[in-house]
């Protein structure tokens, strides 16, 4: 049985989580031409840029900056969900209706926000390298 490098290390899980989200958002933007995915990519990259600038003299981003980024993130997620509604169930068909990959990604980002937001707001050091 393989052991995950993130096992027991919540910060590492967040790093992997956000890297995975960036890959998924890039795929959704390129394959499905969803502009909201590109906006979320830019939001995450802007947070990373802000963290890199503040890393030398702070442990966390300013609360006002966190609030600004979180509002932006929530707004784009809400717009993405609005533009990717669940499909209608066909009469006479059984089971769940298959959702689109963009809808699934926006649902996952909304549902996992709390777990991954720590990385976006706390400047941490992981195994000698900054996250």
Describe the overall structure.
This protein is mainly α. It has one domain. Helix content is 64%, strand content 3%. It contains 5 helices and 2 strands. The protein has helices at residues 10-32, 35-54, 63-83, 101-111, 113-121; strands at 125-126, 129-130. Strands 1-2 form a two-stranded antiparallel sheet. Helix 1 (10-32) packs antiparallel against helix 2 (35-54), helix 1 (10-32) runs antiparallel to helix 4 and helix 3 (63-83) runs antiparallel to helix 4. The protein starts with 9 loop residues before the first helix and ends with a strand. Mean pLDDT is 80; it is low at 1-15 and 125-131.
Give helix % range: 55-70%
* Low-pLDDT segments: 1-15, 125-131
H/E topology pattern? HHHHHEE
Strand content: under 5%
Please report the distance between the alpha carbons of the first and last residues: 27 Å
Number of discrete domains: 1
**Overall residue-averaged pLDDT value:** 80
Please specify the SSE layout and strand pairing.
Blueprint: H1 10-32, H2 35-54, H3 63-83, H4 101-111, H5 113-121, E1 125-126, E2 129-130
Helix pairs in contact: 1-2, 1-4, 1-5, 2-3, 3-4
Quick summary of this structure?
The chain is mainly alpha-helical and 131 residues long. The chain has helices at residues 10-32, 35-54, 63-83, 101-111, 113-121; strands at 125-126, 129-130.
């Amino acid at each position: 049985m393989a052991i995950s490098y993130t096992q027991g290390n919540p910060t590492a899980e967040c790093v992997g989580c956000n890297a995975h989200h960036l890959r998924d958002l890039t795929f959704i933007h390129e394959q499905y031409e969803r502009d909201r995915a590109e906006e979320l990519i830019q939001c995450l990259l802007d947070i990373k840029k802000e963290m890199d600038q503040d890393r030398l003299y702070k442990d966390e981003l300013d609360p006002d900056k966190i609030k600004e980024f979180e509002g932006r993130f929530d707004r784009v997620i809400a717009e993405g969900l609005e533009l990717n509604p669940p499909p209608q169930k066909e009469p006479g068909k059984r089971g769940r209706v298959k959702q689109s990959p963009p809808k699934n990604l926006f649902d996952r980002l909304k549902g996992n926000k709390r777990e991954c937001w720590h990385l976006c707001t706390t400047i941490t050091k992981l195994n000698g390298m900054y996250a």
